[in-house]
TrEMBL record, chains A, B:
Family: Belongs to the glycosyltransferase 4 family.
Sample GO molecular function, one term: glycosyltransferase activity
Pathway: Protein modification; protein glycosylation
Enzyme class, spelled out: transferase
Cell location: Endoplasmic reticulum membrane
Gene Ontology CC: endoplasmic reticulum membrane
UniProt-recorded name of the protein: UDP-N-acetylglucosamine--dolichyl-phosphate N-acetylglucosaminephosphotransferase
Species for this entry: Adineta ricciae (Rotifer)
Membrane topology listed for this record: Multi-pass membrane protein
Length: 526, 526
């Protein structure tokens, strides 16, 4: 609680400080209320009144002034994005709530420079603010985990660390992800208030179309945290877990429809002669986005089971997205990437303390809560930030792991309850776990998959005769973790984690940046 | 899962059915695309282009067509509320997603009838749809509770029913509210998609200002469910629990600011000569709304501890709000009351199965999850439905209970860990529980409170000499539950529940309707 209070107090103080500074620094000559612009709006308004047959505008939803401001808002936004001078200085009374610096700067660039920096002083302030509260949030998480650990164990939220010699001796607290997610949500609630504080004066247009994005994003994330935590506490059946993210992503899809509703994809150059320049996917695009939500939510959860792996990969993905956002912040989709940035900074800051405590040997476990939380956050950012394809590239190791898991997930090959590596107590190293079954039980498709992944070295299998003279197959389980153990022999758990992190870094991040900034030119026009 | 699938399938089927029916029934002569109206919009648009100095509108957020539709939307809304003819028949292609009946009716009423019914055919459809999925949701809850009960007990989410003779023998599953809340959230996600489905064609204006209300409401509720469930699993400190609802209500306040930002209250007639006709509360109004959120979230939780009480009072409040909404649906704030209706119907439908199983003798407990969930739902509805004052009237018993609890909550009088009634095993009836302390430890304010509540018959206290010849005070605990037991003598738990329900009904609901529809005329102009 003390920490929460600190966050709130720091937020309010910074808010007050900056707004005071902004008032003395930016709000000059308040009498010059951009009169010409207001007149224009007046004119539009008059025309409108004319067109609705003289009906007195009494019960309309927005008051007249707000409507004017709305018109004005669209102008301002357009001008901002075209690099036009923005001179609106009025409407900054302290009447409603406290005032904020707002967008009072004057950009004077040529109309033709579409790639002008669209991040203004206020956006920079919000980023700095975000960084500060994220750091505070991280510190809070760092303090809360050891404080609450015992409470979790008492509430039966604990597990044994199976990859250790003394595994059955120590109870390790589970579901610590809920602490991260809780603090993340608190930070984001404060962040929303800050981001939209520039519109907190009575004559401002409130950008509802932006606001819905934040709310829908947080709603989906919050639902997944709830689902994850409920799953940790009472095991939820896998088919419920599979489809709930889809329902939780419904608001996201609606927001996408409301704000963009473009479902047209531009095809890469090589296929254009055959399929045309672009395709309108229509409803299929929404199905695709739903699938992204489901995939991302579960992707992290199925590449798990080794100390530090779940948080480690999330932090690497989040870091990569952060770098990607920072690069793209100079581009024409700056607003979307700013949106993403606001989520990534607290995610990283709150995850790092958990990573430290979850790293081998794990002091705490993250639980499904963390996996769903991080996964859904990425999905949300990808969908609303308009880079779901790039986001999927960051998930390449997870995609490979998923494809590799398909034979076992869909029962082409028998799947044991757990596919975690096996500990060799003598060496204190991990071996790939395996599964045994009769060769005659294997269907042709299963056999094909076995052969394919064996040829591509992802698994190792051998045939032998059992006592009843039946041909048996013994194969390592179909996960990247076991594949790594096949490639590099028995490994200590920490070394395994490091290698998996390296794979994430190389095949998730570096490869993506290579594809996104180098390879892309061969497929799309710049 | 089967139930979820059923809900989704029924939703999609109904959607398709109604949209097919609507297309054959309402969408006549698609060539007559309300040409005059579009021309008007064209005109406005031309004027606008003229006024922004010929800047080519390329990077503006909404495409030109959407902007026109936006203008059109405002017209349509205004006309709808003024009872003007609405004739828009165009734009209903099945291109984007499937089509919906939309607002294709023609209301032809006099412009002067401000109280014309503003609920149209589509709204009626959504209400019917809401009722149907709510019933399905209720059935699902009814099936899920017995299915999941054992899982909750296994997850250490259980408690003893202290007011029973055999209390220590049976483990009763706790936190069943999370099932209700989960199904409620799923229903509301589907509901959102249905409510906004009329805007799911590419040329529609998407009413973001309405959409934010739903999202903010669900976000706040979802956060409180998470908090409640976390509180059930790992006890959270009371000061965290006290302030988190405030943070969770931040988006609500922003939505209120964005959509209404009126903070002016009209004063009742008797005080107008002294204080004026109206007051602009400014930021204080937001503080008030925050307080409403905090109060409602905790109000149900502090009037608890008897079988069926938490759900019972919630169902009565929800039912009263429902009736209030249905009455007001004919008024000028129909849209807000429709919004409230969408939440109340599933809340009641999902709560009733829980009430049946929580009624004396309780088969399951509801947990903090349910209390926070129901409380926050009421707070959200009150704030965004613009009847927070009426909502508080529905909470009269809770307010009295809170005021009665103040001396113990704020330690003017010693507060034991539990203030539940005491079971008399011989009679199997409940007696008021009590607390003993030395008279000399009592501060003057505490003494005053003790005397006041004793005179008003809410508590019973007596003084006596202990063995050390010190004057001791023995007083019943300061809760409505104990007060009822003071008034009516020892009662069986079920009878106590019934009386408390009656109090809720009389002092919560009937009194409110009396105040709201009769007494109000003496204080405000009609």
């Amino acid at each position: 609680m003390r920490y929460l209070q600190q966050i709130v107090i720091v937020a309010v103080l910074m808010q007050l400080l900056v707004s005071t500074w902004a008032r003395t620094r930016f709000v000059r000559e308040p009498s010059l209320v951009a009169s010409s612009l207001w007149n224009e709006i007046e004119e539009i308004d008059n025309n409108e009144s004319g067109s609705d047959h003289g009906v007195v505008d009494r019960s309309t939803f927005w008051p007249s002034k707000a409507k004017k401001a709305y018109h004005y808002g669209m102008e301002e936004r357009r001008k901002k994005y075209l690099g036009e001078p923005v001179n609106f200085q009025g409407g900054h009374s302290l009447q409603g709530l406290w005032a904020m610096p707002g967008r009072h700067k004057t950009i004077s660039m040529k109309r033709t420079t579409m790639s002008s920096p669209v991040i203004d002083r206020f956006d920079l302030f919000t980023i700095v603010f975000n960084i500060i509260i994220s750091i505070i949030g991280g510190i809070v998480v760092n303090r809360l985990i050891p404080m609450l650990k015992e409470k979790f164990i008492k509430a039966q939220l604990w597990g044994y660390d199976l990859n250790k010699r003394n595994s059955k001796e120590i109870k390790v607290a589970e579901s610590q992800g809920v602490i991260v997610a809780g603090i993340f949500l608190v930070l984001m609630f404060i962040m929303i208030a800050i981001v939209f504080s520039e519109h907190l004066h009575p004559e401002s247009d409130f950008p509802n179309h932006k606001f819905v994005e934040y709310l829908a994003a947080l709603l989906s994330i919050c639902c997944m945290v709830l689902l994850g935590f409920a799953d940790d506490v009472i095991d939820i059946r896998w088919n419920v877990k599979l489809w709930l993210p889809m329902i939780a992503s419904l608001p996201l899809l609606l927001v996408y429809f409301a704000n963009y509703h473009s479902t047209t994809i531009i095809l890469p150059k090589p296929v254009r002669p055959y399929f045309g320049q672009q395709w309108n996917l229509g409803i299929l695009y929404y199905v695709y986005m739903s699938m992204v939500a489901i995939f991302c939510t579960h992707a992290i959860n199925i590449l798990a089971g080794v100390n530090g792996l779940e948080v480690g990969q999330s932090v690497i993905i989040a870091g990569s997205v952060l770098i990607f956002n920072l690069i793209e912040l100079q581009g024409i989709c700056a607003e979307e990437h700013l949106f993403s940035l606001y989520f990534m900074i607290p995610l990283i800051a709150c995850s790092i303390p958990l990573l430290i405590r979850n790293w081998c040997p794990a002091e705490v476990f993250v639980g499904d809560t963390y996996c769903y939380f991080a996964g859904m956050t990425f999905a949300v950012i990808g969908i609303l930030g308009h880079f779901s394809k790039t986001m999927l590239l960051f998930f390449i190791p997870q995609i490979i792991n998923f494809l590799l898991s398909v034979p076992q997930l869909f029962k082409f090959i028998p799947c044991p309850r757990h596919r975690l590596p096996k500990l060799d107590p003598a060496l204190n190293k991990l071996n790939p776990s395996d599964v045994e079954f009769k060769k005659k039980d294997l269907k042709p498709l299963g056999w094909l998959m076995l052969r394919f992944f064996s040829l591509t070295k992802f698994i190792r299998y051998r045939e032998y005769q059992n006592n009843d003279n039946e041909t048996m197959i013994n194969t390592t389980n179909f996960t990247i973790i076991n594949s790594v153990l096949c490639w590099f022999g028995p490994l200590h758990e920490e070394k395994l984690s490091r290698i998996l992190m390296l794979i994430q870094l190389v095949f998730g991040s570096l490869l993506t940046f290579f594809v996104r900034y180098y390879l892309v030119r061969f497929f799309y026009d710049s």
